């Protein structure tokens, strides 16, 4: 079995994707890592398709824009994407989301209490 280099986090983020005149759609993003994700969607995305991907990680902020992602595989109603290119600002935002996900749940809960 393939050993992953980066931790994956179970999330339920809204997402949308598009590719130059090939495919576009919306889905639910899950299994987020610093290098990629899984997207559940009714739209079939063929492996090798280059996509622009938008990750809605919060209702309070605009989506993270992945300017280039590549679909690596497709199985019944979901596909895996590798993030290929993000702007420096979007990369920093993605790193921040991953850092928050790495925290233990009690750490996140404590921060929410402290912020209130």
If you had to describe this structure to a student in words, what would you say it looks like?
The protein is α+β, with helices and mostly antiparallel strands and 116 residues long. The protein has one domain (13-115): Thrombin, subunit H. The chain has two helices and six strands. It has helices spanning 88-102, 105-115; strands spanning 13-19, 23-30, 36-40, 50-56, 64-75, 78-85. A six-stranded antiparallel barrel has the order 1-2-3-6-5-4. The mean pLDDT is 88.
- Please give the alpha-carbon distance between the first and last residues: 44 Å
Gross CATH architecture: Beta Barrel
Judged by helices, strands and strand pairing, the structural class is alpha+beta
CATH class: Mainly Beta
CATH topology: Thrombin, subunit H
Tally of alpha and pi helices:
2
Percent of residues in β-strands: 35-45%
Q: CATH superfamily, please? A: predicted glycosyltransferase like domains
Q: Can you give the mean pLDDT?
A: 88
How would you write the strand order of the largest sheet?
A: 1-2-3-6-5-4
Shape: globular
């Amino acid at each position: 079995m393939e050993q992953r280099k980066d931790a994956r986090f179970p999330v339920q983020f809204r997402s949308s994707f598009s590719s130059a005149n090939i495919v576009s759609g919306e889905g639910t993003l899950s299994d987020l890592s610093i290098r990629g994700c899984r997207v559940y969607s009714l739209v079939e995305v063929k492996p090798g398709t280059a996509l622009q991907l938008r990750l809605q990680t919060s209702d309070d902020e605009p989506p993270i824009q992945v300017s280039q992602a590549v679909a690596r595989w497709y199985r019944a109603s979901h596909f895996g994407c590798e993030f290929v290119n993000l702007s420096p600002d979007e990369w920093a935002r993605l790193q921040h989301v991953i850092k928050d996900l790495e925290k233990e749940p009690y750490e996140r809960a404590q921060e929410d209490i402290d912020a209130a």
